[in-house]
Amino acid sequence: MTTTRDDLLTDLINRTEMDGDGPRITIATEGVVITGRLTPHRRWAADVAGRLGDAGLPDERFAEDFDREAAEIPDYPPAFLNLRGCQLISGTSSLPAILGEYFRIPLSAVSAWSVR
Q1: Residue 62 has what DSSP assignment?
Q2: Residue-wise over 64-99: b if at least 16 C-beta within 10 A, else e?
């Protein structure tokens, strides 16, 4: 299977990393359509760390892993897109209709996308 790099999506992710907030985006990935706001890697990881830290034992022990991730410089070109405020639009998945605040998708798994 040949993968095609989507330069426009890569540019949107990079601009989000620089500017701090991205557009609402809808993506198709492996038979599922998800929508959410594109968010910078560091904010995504720090927010997940905060939620895990507030969750109480045993989940709080994972917060430091996300804190470390938030401190790292994001890859270029990016390998993932990070979303917040996500909702499942359609698909046959065990994911709940409201995914919660944060979701991460490998760019290689994105088959289609649209800015809302």
Answers
A1: G
A2: eebbebbeeebeeebebbbbbebbbeeeeeeeeeeb
Distance CA 85, CA 102 (A): 6
**50: CB partners within 8 A, 6+ apart:** 63
The residues pairing with 37 across neighbouring beta strands, listed in sequence order, are 24, 84
Give the separation between CA 67 and CA 53, rounded to whole angstroms: 10
Per-residue pLDDT 10s for the chain (116 aa) are 455 679 999 999 999 999 988 999 999 998 889 999 999 999 999 998 988 888 776 778 888 999 999 998 888 889 999 999 988 888 766 666 554 678 999 999 999 999 98
pTM across the whole model: 0.82
Helix 41-55 to helix 63-71 angle (10° resolution) is 160
